[in-house]
Amino acid sequence: MNDRPRIKSCIEIAKTRLFRVEALELEFSNGEQRTYERLAGSGSGRKAVMVVPMLDDHRFLLVKEFAAGTEDYQLSLPKGLVELDETLFEGADRELKEEAGFGARQWDYITEFTVSPNYMKNHIHVVLARDLYPERLEGDEPEIMEVVEWSLDDLQTLNDRPDFSEARTLAALYLVRDKLQNGL
Q1: Number of neighbouring beta carbons within 10 Å of residue 37
Q2: What's the confidence (pLDDT) of residue 104?
Q3: What are the tens digits of pLDDT across the range 160-169?
Q4: Among 123, 124, 106, 110, which Cα is nearest to 50's?
Q5: What residue stretches are annotated with the Nudix hydrolase domain (predicted)?
Q6: Domain assignments of the chain as residue spans, ordered by start
Q7: What is the rounded CA–CA span in Å between residue 161 and residue 168?
Q8: CATH of domain 47-182
Q9: Model confidence over 90-142: pLDDT tens digits?
Q10: DSSP-assigned letters across all residues of the chain
């Protein structure tokens, strides 16, 4: 295994409300030098969370929201940033109430994902929400999201839908399905 490249410099080359673009000047163990660019997040130190809300051991909830990247409405799991004064589960509960209109009494940590780690520094924590109850909070979404019920027994059909394309959501659902089948 090679040693990690030495970061010679890290320079912010662009910044938006949500992202910073950084240029990393790297020197590899064999002497090669390269510039890599990455999205580094806002720098706020806030965590991101994705919620798998389970109605029972098989049925879960998705939300349909406009996705600017695909310029269309997409099915996904409730997700968002955790406020600095919240725990991971408190932020997850708030996001679930804002986006799906439910709270949860039971929480389990599942995993942490990166998305495109060659180009992004961001991570998202996946949590399982069970023992749901109806409660809606007003959030920062521009419109109320449609809530769609689905079954863990039919993930292939979900994956085949044209309005479902987020790999993190699919991976989280398969992980939760396997964990629930093994007695989580």
Answers
A1: 12
A2: 98
A3: 999 999 999 9
A4: 124
A5: 45-174
A6: 6-39, 47-182
A7: 16
A8: 3.90.79.10
A9: 999 999 999 999 999 999 999 999 888 888 878 899 999 999 999 999 988 88
A10: -PPPPEEEEEEEEEE-SS-EEEEEEEE-TTS-EEEEEEE---SS---EEEEEEBSSSSEEEEEEEEETTTTEEEEE--EEEPPTTS-HHHHHHHHHHHHHSEEEEEEEEEEEEESSTTTB--EEEEEEEEEEEE-----S-SSPPEEEEEEGGGHHHHHHSTT---HHHHHHHHHHHHHHHTT-
What distance in Å separates the CA atoms of residue 24 and residue 28, rounded to the nearest whole number?
12
Q: Give Cα 97 to chain centroid, integer Å.
A: 16
- Taking the CB of residue 167, how many other CB atoms lie within 10 A of it? 11
Per-residue pLDDT at 49: 97
